[in-house]
Amino acid sequence: MLRFSALCLALTLPALAHAQDESTPAPEHERRVGHVLIISEDGLRGDAVEKMHLKWHEVLRHHGSYSYHAKTIRDASTLPAHASMLSGVDSNVHGLTWNNWRPSKGYIKTPTIFTEAQDAGMTTAFFTGKSKLRHIVPPGTVGVYDRPGYYCKKVAEEAALYLTTEKPALAFVHFSDPDERGHSDGWMSEKQLSAIHSSDRCLGILYEALERSGMLEDTLIIVSADHGGHNRVHSGATKIDREIPWIACGPGVLENHLLGDNISTMDTAATALYALGLPISVSLTGKPRTEIFSETMASEASTTLPIASDPTP
Fold first, then answer.
1. What value does the CA radius of gyration of the chain take, rounded to a whole number of Å?
2. How far is the CA of 238 from the CAs of 58, 136, 186, in angstroms?
3. DSSP code of residue 72
4. Among residues 14, 119, 145, 245, which one has the fewest Cβ atoms lying within 10 Å of its Cβ?
């Protein structure tokens, strides 16, 4: 039985209320996959994935659609960028403009893909190496929140066990390794490249676990990052700070398909909602990347539905 630390509990408080007459789950027949797994490799530059030919990234690229030049938000820091990845809106909307764990500041001000999935009765899970990402998931908006450790090996192993045992409809897994070595030794330094290889192996832990459990054939996997970096920083002021990889692999996804460079990290949220048949708010900046799917899968997205804003936590 999977054990969680006292600080990493399954969240059981009531979910933030939505106005029921303003947000309606999409019909079940519009659900395109059984599961969505989003994996974020903190601080991973797109050109690193392109140049290094990483084993497990190459597996996903070969079987999926990809870009090495997707863009994160201008505020290219871990907390704001992940909040945009998982909410589909920029930091001036979701409100997480700082970049450390500050409990007194509260939580994200907008719904996320987890609130939408929970409201539709879907199971969810969130595994992270950094405690500050807790700001993205207010109590009651995710089924399980866990921080197994800082580095990716422990995070990946515990996430893999939970994913294949409980089979949540929506899960997020975060790896800290590339960012840690980027700050300590410099982006694209020998030690950071080694950390990127470690992150690739952690990606393999998740992929092989899904394959063994039979979940791979019904899971949309999106692999991306929150930001890039240069020297030992990532301010977002330079292009290389904002360029990130974006790889999608799963049922109905076009294989070995190079995407354009106009993909935003905010599109990750919208694409996850689209794949799970959940409503996509007209207020989202991100758009579902329907072009990743074959023609039989990429029918027009259902009419977007307005989603009531969550009250400020």
1. 18
2. 27, 26, 15
3. -
4. 14
Pair of tokens at residue 16: 């933030």
Q: What single letter denotes the amino acid at residue 286?
A: G
SS3 per-residue string spanning 262-295: CCECHHHHHHHHHHCCCCCCCCCCCCCCHHHECC
Q: pLDDT tens digit string along 86-104?
A: 999 999 999 999 999 999 9
pLDDT at site 106: 96
Question: What are the tokens at 251?
Answer: 């049922």
Which are the contacts of 135, defined by CB distance < 8 A and separation ≥ 6? 79, 83, 96, 101, 102, 105, 106, 107, 108
Q: Beta-strand (E) ranges in 86-181?
A: 124-127, 144-146, 170-175
> Domains in the chain, ordered, with CATH?
31-292 (3.40.720.10)
